[in-house]
Design a protein that fits this description.
By secondary structure, this protein is mostly helical. It has one domain: Lysozyme, CATH 1.10.530.10. It contains 4 helices and 3 strands. Strands 1-2-3 form a 3-stranded antiparallel beta sheet. Helix 2 crosses helix 3. It is globular and about 35 Å long. 24% of the residues are buried. It is found in: Secreted. Keywords: Antimicrobial, Bacteriolytic enzyme, Disulfide bond, Glycosidase, Hydrolase, Secreted, Signal. Belongs to the glycosyl hydrolase 22 family.
Length: 130
């Protein structure tokens, strides 16, 4: 009984000590609807299925996804990079081509993420930046 109590306190402590990186997880079917509604079907010659695959493997549908690449970082559901597309105030020589703070790519409102992802895909004529 004492060991279970200790385990409970330990788990509670760890839960408080770990940073919160879980944003909204957008359900698959909802993500398909969002992509269709925002004109991703056929956009730069790619299907909604292509974009779904990208979102799944880049962020696992998590709006707060974050990945440190060393000199730059990837943010949000599309994992948009701070070297070229957003400004995180940490990446030297950032181009900030989407004119957006990287932190805005980690909130639950993904409309700005969508605009930036489409800009990236349009400029690359596809999904090669990912």
């Amino acid at each position: 009984r004492k060991s279970m109590l200790l385990l409970g306190f330990l788990l509670a402590f760890l839960g408080l000590a770990l940073p919160v990186t879980q944003g909204k997880i957008i359900p698959r079917c909802e993500m398909v609807k969002i992509l269709r509604r925002n004109g991703f079907e056929g956009f730069v010659g790619k299907t909604v299925a292509d974009w779904m695959c990208l979102v799944k493997y880049e962020s696992d549908y998590n709006t707060k996804a974050y990945n440190n690449n060393g000199p730059s970082r990837d943010y949000g559901i599309f994992q948009i990079n701070s070297k070229y597309w957003c400004n995180d105030g940490k990446t030297s020589g950032s181009k900030d081509a989407c004119h957006i703070s990287c932190s805005k790519l980690q909130d639950d409102n993904i409309s700005d993420d969508i605009q930036c992802a489409k800009k990236i895909a349009r400029e690359a004529r596809g999904l090669t930046p990912w």
